Amino acid sequence: MFFVRTATERDLAKVSALLGETAHATYDAQYGVEKINEMTAKWHSVAALKANLQRKNGEFLVADDGKVIAGMGFASMSETLHETAVLHQLYVLPQFQRQGIARDIFAELETCFPYAGTIQVEVEENNAKAIGFYEAHGFVRAGAGAATWGIATIVMEKPLG
């Protein structure tokens, strides 16, 4: 049984490993190991995660059973969009997917931003599993994303409240 709780600095090495493993399992075949290594080194390093953990108006959660951190989520209020929370990361280790862990993390994150009218997420445009998850949880496509690292994305949004 996994419990969703606020992440601590002690969790960051495990979360970094989780993010790397999940990113490689999801994207290696499409983008190659080297590109995913570059991305994970930048976005999923302990230092990057520590910055997220310390971010004002942010919420960093993990799903923990006392032995394994099986999932994580990080969201924060947008610095540029009015009354909008941004879901930056929602990852579950491949062997624990489809067990409700992402649902439980997301349900908790949704409650963390009482001043947000909308929550937004950017998803790789070919990641059908993620798009299906977000659509099942009330998100709709809202446009094209930033295409960072040459990876095309879509923006999805959901009203909150």
UniProtKB/TrEMBL annotation:
Residues 2-161 form the N-acetyltransferase domain. Gene3D superfamilies: 3.40.630.30. Keywords: Acyltransferase, Transferase. The keyword Ribosomal protein does not apply. One of its GO terms (molecular function) is acyltransferase activity, transferring groups other than amino-acyl groups. InterPro entries: Acyl_CoA_acyltransferase, Bact_Acetyltransf, GNAT_dom. It comes from the Bacteria. Pfam families: Acetyltransf_10 (PF13673). This is GCN5 family acetyltransferase. It comes from Pararhizobium polonicum.
